Every structure is written in C-alpha cells, then in structure tokens.
Amino acid sequence: xxxxxxxxxxxxxxxxxxxxxxxxxxxxxxxxxxxxxxxxxxxxxxxxxxxxxxxxxxxxxxxxxxxxxxxxxxxxxxxxxxxxxxxxxxxxxxxxxxxxxxxxxxxxxxxxxxxxxxxxxxxxxxxxxxxxxxxxxxxxxxxxxxxxxxxxxxxxxxxxxxxxxxxxxxxxxxxxx
Length: 177
Fold this sequence. Notes:
Layout: E1 7-13, H1 18-31, E2 38-42, E3 45-52, E4 55-62, E5 67-72, H2 76-83, E6 88-91, E7 93-94, E8 97-98, H3 103-113, E9 119-120, E10 129-132, E11 141-148, E12 153-160, E13 163-170, E14 174-176
Parallel strand pairs: 3-9
Antiparallel strand pairs: 1-5, 1-6, 2-5, 3-4, 7-8, 10-11, 10-14, 11-12, 12-13
C-alpha cells in the first residue's frame, strides 16, 4: 500500500460531539495499531469574530457541523476502526460504500480553513432597529441601513433634529433592541 491509496473520506458523527469522536478515533487508531492505514482526522473549522458583551472574540466555528474528514487507506480493517468508533454514525457515500473526496474538494476545504482573515459574525440585519451604546450618539435608536462585515462597520439611520441622518459605526458601538 503506497501513498497513492491514501484518500480523504467524510465521516458523519453526532452533531456537537465532533471533538469527542475525533479524540476517541485517534485513541482507537493507536490502540488497534492502525496508524499505517489511518493518517489524519480533521474537523474543518474557520475563525469567526463574534461580538458578545461588547467584546470581540475569535472563535473556531465548525464549517460542517456533524462531519469530520479522515485521511486513510480504505480496507476492511480501517473501515471497522472508524465505523465502530463511538459517536460515528457512518461514512458519507453511496449506500454502504464510502466515496472519497476529490483532490480539488479537499484543497478547497483546507484553503478555506487557512484563510488569513476571520469572518465577522454579524448579530443584526438590514432594516433592524438598534441602540447606539458608545460614541457621540450613545443611547440613540436607529435602523440598520447597510452592513460592511469586511470593515466591521454598520451604517445606521438615526433620527436627529427631526431628520434621519446616516452614521457609520463600529459593530462594537451598537446592540440589537
């Protein structure tokens, strides 16, 4: 068996238990002496900036909740090691036959995981009412007019002296009503 037999497979797990299943599988690979057939177990994640309690936090968000990738040489033995791991519900494929990912698909997933800039999770949408919690317009109520996640800015229409004026604010300066 050479490197050309190694392929990536998608394994379905209980959603929310991906990390536990990954740990269990890695222990089973060692204890069942399958390191020459199962090489890597990866849970695809991407960094996402979310704003909670006025603080920016970078969190690793699962790209495919309930799924993980396993690089392996498919044999009856390696199939059994993965398939009988607690929390694994099966391989993704046609019927009972696991179908490997194509090289291009794997490349896209890993490039997506290596993205330099994290995505910003936006907690509000266009047309939604918000309250300004920081800056010169503190305690003003406005309506979201435009969202720019790349810059972390939101354009808000604030009623000021009887007119609506557009104001560009940072995501940290506003909260949902």
